[in-house]
Amino acid sequence: MDWQEISGNWVLVPDRPIAIIHFLGGAFVATAPQLTYRRLLEFLGAQGYLIVATPFVNTFDHTEIAKLVLMSFDRAMRGIRSQLSVQYLPIYGMGHSMGCKLHLLIGSLFAVERVGNIFISFNNYAAKEAVPFVEQFSQFLKPQGFSVEFTPSPTETKEIIRDRYSVRRNLIIKFADDSIDQSLPLAQLLEGLSPGMITTQRLKGSHLTPLGPDMKWQVGSSFTPIDAIGQWMRQEIYRELRQLEKTILGWLNPMAF
């Protein structure tokens, strides 16, 4: 199973897919999700989930980005369906960091069919908190008519979700060592919309845990102490990522364990 590029999206198609996951990454690593999130996405692909990872370039207009990534996903799906032997597969949204906000906007502003969404390390900060030096540049940008705040703003985003978000089943994942995470307020907001349908998981890790690359340690002709150290390091690096993979898979398919 290899990555293929379809209409600007990076796609993994298992032999017998059981569902589709539309993945959106974080603001500064979203341009090549098939590389930056490779291990996590390929793990889910190996479990039978068809992965559509949509790259995007971050701007201040998050509503426009949400519209563009949804259009890109829809174009990819038209090409993908010709490869499938089944007519219907359930679609899940999955986002990391800013990708969470985009899926929340998609589920609020557009008519989409999603059986559930997965939000990993959600944050909804204002531009001055999320973008280095934006305050210093704002005095030059404002007179030229450029926005120095995200659209929608953090407050507007909460209002849009509260009034219009339509996806009932949601998994929210918060890492213990993540100072920019805002998952718990999101969980409270969504629980008010769909009582009993929101699952919140707190895991060990940091904001960068989902980015763990697929590092393979090649053992030489004979097993040496260096090989032992290398394999131990690999196990430690991936312990938190494996827990994330298990949590996502258990929510998608409770019968998997």
Provide the succession of SSEs. EEEHHEHEHEHHHEHEH
The total strand number stands at 8
Within CATH, the superfamily carries the name Alpha/Beta hydrolase fold, catalytic domain
Quaternary state of the chains: single chain
Largest sheet: 8 strands, mixed
pLDDT averaged residue by residue: 88
Q: How many structurally independent domains?
A: 1
Level-2 CATH architecture: 3-Layer(aba) Sandwich
Shape: globular
Helix fraction, binned, reads 40-55%
Describe it for me?
This protein is of the alpha/beta class and 257 residues long. It has a single domain, classed as Alpha/Beta hydrolase fold, catalytic domain (Rossmann fold), CATH 3.40.50.1820. Helix content is 41%, strand content 18%. The protein is built from nine helices and eight strands. The chain has helices spanning 33-36, 38-46, 62-80, 98-109, 127-130, 134-141, 154-164, 183-193, 225-252, and strands at 4-6, 9-12, 19-24, 49-53, 91-96, 116-120, 170-177, 198-206. It has an eight-stranded mixed beta sheet with strand order 1-2-4-3-5-6-7-8, sandwiched between helices. Strand 5, helix 4 (98-109) and strand 6 (116-120) form a beta-alpha-beta unit. Helix 3 crosses helix 4 (98-109) and helix 4 packs across helix 7. The longest helix has 28 residues, at 225-252. It is globular, with a radius of gyration of 19 Å. Residues 226-230 have low confidence and may be disordered.
